Amino acid sequence: MAFHGDVARAATIPSVVFQTWLVTTSEFLHSAIVFAIWSTWHSFLPTGGYASCGVWHIEDTDVEEFDEEFSLHWTQPLTPRHATRGRRPHQRRDFASALQLEGCASKYADPVKIGAGDYASVYRIRKKAFGSSFVKSKRKYYAYAVKVPNPDDHEAEEAAEHEMTVMSAAKEHRCEHVLPLLEKDPCVNGHEVSNAFVTKLLPWDLLKWKTKLRRRPVKCAAKLFKAISNGLDCVHAAGYMHGDLKLGNILFEDFDDDGCPRGLQLADLGISRELGKAARKFDSDYYYDCWHLPGALFRDVEDPLELSEGKRFIPDRRVDGCSLAMVMFEFFKFHIPELQKDLGEGSCGPMGPDREILLP
What we know:
The chain is α+β, with helices and mostly antiparallel strands. It contains 6 helices and 19 strands. Strands 1-3-4-5-9-6 form a 6-stranded antiparallel sheet. It has a 3-stranded antiparallel sheet with strand order 2-8-7, with no helix packed on it.
């Protein structure tokens, strides 16, 4: 009986091996199919960022979480999957293609791409210390950012020049809560980057903070409202409206003892407009998801602010007031009665994610 038992067990070995192989192969094929489907779907989405007004994608900028092993020297093509997926071809260009002049004294080094929009890309850079070496500490290693317009794109260069003009005006007015312009045409790795500019690299924005919270920090509402209002007032005093106020464009350094954002700065002044000077209305098919802006800025839509002059509009500080009301409502369910009674009503006109998609 023992002999027959051994034979029987021996006979079952090929069967067991085949079944094991079949299960393993099936699991592998299933995983491969799932990964292929996920990769195809994910390739249409911005990695590590979020879609926003004007199709701007920004990566995670928690400075302390980056290691040097992920740094890319400017001579290497910026082609890793995380740096190019979901981007248009002209957004995948090498940082080196934006370098204009050689032989300048390097003040910054080691650019690493963290985001891209239709007209520009943003890189983390590190600054040279007072001596001959570059700052090495984890916190200060990437304490700065450089915004570089797409090479050989005249419209992108004009947009960059305009943004620098607005930031310079805010700097002259010593705007405490507006991201400061530190330098134009910086020298990076011995090359001048034309039409680019350097700012502080702040690791947080209100959108990122909101997504990490389990509940709304109502106790921070008054502090944030005061800081944002102060920043907007200063931009207005400099002669401009911000024009693109939303959670993702409000950056900050860290948190205070109450867990509220500290060192808040308004950023992304690329579509700012000079107050009182007629400007072209936005193409609504391009800005279809800019629900944080009054409809008066778009063509052929309701204009309760009465800003329209045919196909143009007169930039007004009330535009920023309406966007501020939208930000406070989105984050805190906090109403500013004099600006809007509810989403889609009041003096600001239709606003909010539930408004109809704007069409030209």
